[in-house]
Design brief:
The complex is a heterodimer of chains A (about 280) and B (about 300).
Chain A: H1 15-42, H2 47-52, H3 64-72, H4 75-106, H5 112-124, H6 131-140, H7 147-170, H8 175-183, H9 188-196, H10 201-217, H11 220-225, H12 234-244, H13 249-269, H14 271-283
Helix pairs in contact in A: 1-13, 3-13, 4-5, 4-7, 4-10, 4-12, 5-7, 7-10, 8-9, 10-14, 12-13, 13-14
Chain B: H1 11-42, E1 45-48, E2 51-55, H2 59-66, H3 70-104, H4 110-122, H5 125-135, H6 142-149, H7 166-178, H8 180-191, H9 195-203, H10 208-219, H11 221-236, H12 240-246, H13 259-268, H14 278-305
Antiparallel strand pairs in B: 1-2
Membrane topology (chain A): Multi-pass membrane protein
Subcellular location (chain A): Cell membrane
Family (chain A): Belongs to the binding-protein-dependent transport system permease family.
Chain lengths: ~280, ~300
């Protein structure tokens, strides 16, 4: 990539245009970040201060709202549930997705295309619309109103894209690696585990991030499947929380800030991986 | 070819491959294929709460499309989904394309702007919904407060309480949330255009607008295909933002009602009335399903045709 500032004829542009572009980008970044900043700042204010001075900087020593959200509400419970559900789902997605992807990519067979198409169909269909039969199935399996109801659903949603990412990557690894190990007498499971999978960490990371964000943020399936307050995840718990404190805006903003903090901070620290992971399916 | 592709198909080998593919396929069959196929079947039955009643043929479909109570609600919601699709196509995907083009030039602060654009994308829709609901509060929200402080008192209004502005406010909140996604997908598409192509055009004296229209836009067609298809599916599955910001009934006066809300109300009950109608819900889901699959496929095929290989 060449930078705009380089002075070759091809990239030199009119000064007004460059200025305009800069102004638009700065305005856009302001629009993207300012609401988030207001959310955080308002968490440090009392409700009265929010109403009287909505744009003023708060006194950052007033952490009462945050202490109350963490100490007196069920938010920590929702947080733990989100961690458990997201973590287990990602683990299952990676294990099952890698197994199918490996078989499709490394072993020639007549059913390969069929298997890949089977997963491709799952990629296109919105499972949200099959929520009624899923609800009844989970009830029959005795999983309704448990964290497992969410885990199996998220795993089913995340599997197709993961199979594609893994199969696509594993296919690019040279066959010589396998052959050498085979000549040395390594078994097939051993070749997969010790030779191929250590090389497959980057696509696994992409698949993990691509699935983690929508799973962590999902609201629809918990809304339908979970009734018990102690099993709610963060987005669903947030609706309970917001319903309880409708008039205490300081608490509301503190709650939103706490809910948004983990993933936002992680994103800022790992922005490149996040962007790559979340746009991977569309960019390929 | 490679030795590994011509493995002897011993029993042990077959068992190993089966061990790899069977669990994922069983999992997918149980939790994706079976529910989707059942959803079609369920639509042909009468339901009493959670219990399946008798076979009623197309009754549920007729009720959803032409019935006196359901049809007006469904068509009203469908219209809102169409509005949202068109508006988001322009604001969200169009805005994303322009932002991508500005970023493509790698101006000063490129990294910062790229991170900033994507911050809302990683937030939960629920957080985004509540945040904007608080900002749009008629009395104390910062939107009206800002208008008052600018002396634009007449512009201030109860955005979410006014049926002429409520849907627009939800669409803008959605665009704020997701504009970063098309922006960065388009940026990646632009970065794959061979730089010589753009340089050659510039040397020929092509102006900015012609360059965008005749070179960049056609060459990022693969990005457009996937983004438009995803937006289409997303717009007809729209649920979270309307649910959080406007409520389950699509208030005020159904002006923010969308098919996702109608489906949820029909299938899982109105909180106050607590009625569940799985038959009608399944019929609505089936119709929406077929609509999305048919039109998304047509859209994809049509958009694919204009993609150029280079």
């Amino acid at each position: 990539m060449t930078a705009v500032t380089s002075d070759t004829p091809a990239t030199r542009q009119a000064v007004p245009f460059v200025l305009l572009a800069q102004v638009i980008l700065i305005a856009n970044s302001f629009i993207m970040l300012y609401p988030v900043v207001v959310m955080v700042l308002s968490g440090f204010k009392t409700t009265g201060e929010i109403f009287e001075h909505p744009f003023a900087l708060p006194d950052f020593t007033q952490v009462g709202n945050f202490a109350k959200v963490l100490g007196e509400t069920a938010m920590p419970v929702y947080f733990v549930n989100s961690v458990l559900v997201t973590g287990t789902s990602i683990l299952l997605i990676l294990v099952l997705g890698t197994m199918a992807g490996y078989a499709v990519a490394r072993y020639e067979s007549r059913t390969n295309t069929f298997i890949l198409l089977f997963f491709l169909a799952g990629l296109m269909l919105p499972l949200k619309l099959a929520v009624i039969p899923l609800f009844i199935l989970l009830r029959d399996l005795g999983l309704l109103d448990s964290r497992w109801s969410l885990i199996v659903t998220y795993t089913a949603i995340g599997l197709p894209s993961t199979v594609f990412i893994m199969a696509g990557f594993l296919r690019t690894l040279p066959a010589e690696l396998e052959d050498a190990a085979r000549i040395d007498g390594a078994s097939e499971p051993r070749i997969m585990w010790s030779v191929m999978l250590p090389l497959a960490r980057p696509p696994m990371a992409i698949a993990a991030i691509q699935n983690a964000v929508p799973i962590w943020n999902d609201f629809f399936f918990p809304l339908v499947f979970i009734q018990t307050d102690a099993r709610k995840t963060l987005p669903q718990g947030l609706t309970t929380f917001m319903g309880e404190y409708t008039t205490d805006w300081g608490m509301l903003f503190a709650g939103l800030t706490i809910a948004a903090a983990p993933i936002t901070l992680l994103y800022i620290a790992l922005s490149r991986q996040f962007i790559q992971g979340m746009t991977a399916g569309a960019v390929k | 070819m490679h030795v590994s592709r011509q493995q002897p198909r011993t029993l042990k080998h077959r068992l190993w491959v089966a061990f790899l593919v069977v669990p994922p396929i069983v999992f997918m069959s149980l939790f994706v294929v079976y529910p989707i196929l059942s959803a079609f079947a369920y639509a042909f039955y009468d339901w009493q709460g959670l219990a399946r009643g008798e076979f009623v043929g197309l009754k549920n479909f007729r009720e959803v499309l032409f019935g006196a109570t359901m049809a007006p609600v469904v068509w009203n919601a469908f219209l809102h989904n169409v509005y949202a699709l068109i508006a988001l196509m322009i604001i969200q995907n169009g805005g994303g394309f322009l932002l991508a083009w500005l970023l493509y030039k790698e101006p000063f602060g490129f990294r910062f702007h790229r991170i900033a654009i994507f911050v809302p994308v990683v937030l939960s829709t629920i957080i985004v919904g509540f945040l904007w609901k608080l900002f749009l509060n008629p009395n104390f929200g910062i939107i009206n407060q800002a208008l008052y402080s600018l002396g634009l008192d007449s512009w201030a209004r109860p955005w979410l309480g006014d049926s002429s502005t409520a849907l627009g406010a939800l669409i803008l909140a959605n665009a704020w949330h997701f504009v970063g996604f098309p922006a960065l997908v388009y940026l990646a598409g632009m970065q794959r255009i061979p730089p010589e192509v753009i340089e050659a055009a510039r040397l020929d004296g092509t102006n900015e607008w012609q360059l965008l229209k005749t070179i960049v836009w056609p060459l990022v067609a693969p990005s457009t295909t996937i983004l438009f298809t995803l937006l289409f599916i997303g717009a007809f599955n729209w649920f979270e933002i309307p649910y959080v910001m406007a409520g389950l009934d699509g208030s005020p006066f159904g002006s923010t009602d969308v098919l996702g809300l109608v489906f949820y109300r029909t299938a899982f009950g109105n909180q106050s009335a607590s009625i569940q109608n799985f038959g009608m819900g399944s019929a609505l889901a089936t119709l929406l399903f077929l609509f999305i699959v048919v039109f998304a496929s047509m859209l994809t095929l049509w958009l694919r045709r204009r993609e150029i290989q280079f």
